[in-house]
Amino acid sequence: xxxxxxxxxxxWTHARIPAPEEAEDAIAALCLELGAPGVQTGARDFRRAxxxxxxxxxxxxxxxxxxxxxxxxxxxxxxNGLARIRxxxxxxxxxxxxxxxxxxxxxxASWRENFPPLKIGKTFLISPSWHKLPPxxxxxxxxxxxxxxxxGHHSTTRGCLLALEEEFARTEVCRGLDVxxxxxVLAIAMRKLGATRVVAIDNDPLSLAATEDAxxxxxxxxxxxGANLSAARGEFDIVIANLYSRLxxxxxxxxxxxxxxxxxxxxxxxxxxxEAEVKKALQAQxxxxxxxxxxxxxxxxxxxxxxxxxxxxxx
Length: 315
What we know:
By secondary structure, the protein is of the alpha/beta class.
């Protein structure tokens, strides 16, 4: 019998990820942002390490993804996300990911209730496309969960949106750069706030495709999308990077060099215990911390690149 092409509404995708205990928050955040309405963490992995090994305590993280999330795209997005997280947690092995079908019965029709529209700050309304929204004075950004990080439900995304809101209220912003754009939510937010030129960068093809789709849905073209920083020429009023701590440290010089004098760099994706290392790396590039936010142990920093002092002519 020929298939109708419709996906079984009861057929979900189950992902299981063995990981170092310290990577728990980052991996759970990745799963939630990719569309999982539920994540189970904390189950101990009792498999023995090799004799003499000093392997850190390990846990098992499990997540369930609804039928609307393509299994093939999801698996690739999880692999890419885990590879990025590994930069901060070397004990993580992305190849340990296991993905399988999972039948959930009656719960399958109600998963969308876990993604309500979110009001963030005084300015933003982040919503999946299936909600019918009344007219609002807020800047509405439509983002569906499933292909890339950034639906607004995680503390790092919220912290970045709050920081953007404040920076746009403080000064005129014409040029914005989003490094590690994921779903494109932060780049689109900058366009909604009034930036005339925005560039979104990500080395994950799924993220680039998700951003291009979101740009079209949100009717915020022109917005340039590129796979690396070579697509972002010149300096920007605001550079935003919601990444991971070790990647922020490694990219400190590249990020700072894209900020114009008097401009701002917003970074997130770091836990409170990683803040000092990231702050030190960015301050070494001449940036100065203007603002700090902490939401559920995740930190967002806004840093400023000082303008050069005017030279005084000898009298």
